Here is the input.
Amino acid sequence: MQNQDITLIAADGYKLAATLYLADASVATGDWIVFGSATAVPRQFYRRFAEFAQTRGLNVLTVDYRGIGGSKPAGGLRGFAPDYVDWSRLDLACAVDFCADRGPTYLVGHSLAGHAIGQLPNHKRLRAAFVCAAGAGWHGWMPKSEQFKVWLLWNVIGPVCTRLLGYQPMKALGMGEDLPASIYKQWGYWCRFPHYFFDAPDERSRELVKAYRQVQLPIAACNTTDDLWAMPASRDAFFKGYTAAPIEPITCTPQELGVGQVGHMGYYRESVGRTLWPRMLQWLQGHGLRVA
Here is the structure.
């Protein structure tokens, strides 16, 4: 299999680390999957899924958003202040263009990727999307056991850490990679509202929401019943904002996926993927994806 690390250049000139998983010529269908990562998760986490799709004739591109993984600034995160929306409208959009310039392109993603679709200036270049673990982010959609932990994160731990360090130490909390303070603060602000930024009263959020009404892309939104950060009710609350897109909610249990636990991160672990990933590709095939 041909795996190649490359550098993408976003529209504002920022350099992004990415990896190409090119299908072998003997099975290549010519179709592309662009992968949308979750918040604070580096692209290497999705390598197993990318290789799975690659063996089925698909070319796959994974990318690190600015501030994450190989796309961190040389000077570190202190003082680095990207807009949270930059991850979608600049970074993921750049990856979409790279793939769509080369063949029919589909999006597969995790958590943030479900939010990103409506922020992509080039979402019309995608044929369909399958996203896992996307939800509104509001603690009220979570089980009570998780609500207090999340409240502490947003109201105590987060504000103290970002003020002292100049960034959010997610790695120390066991929650992925460290985040720029600007990303963390914007994320936390939107998570105050039951329908995420669709409920936010500020003018910037209202302007952002308008773009979601233009999306007509078929989207499958898959959530498990044990994903404490994105329960099915949280998913449904968020995807109501895609008023013109055909949304297919898919709810799974760990038992039907053949594992004891999925949680928020398990969708792209190999143990879950043995059952889930073929279903994902099958759904995308129903929207034109060609699989070897």
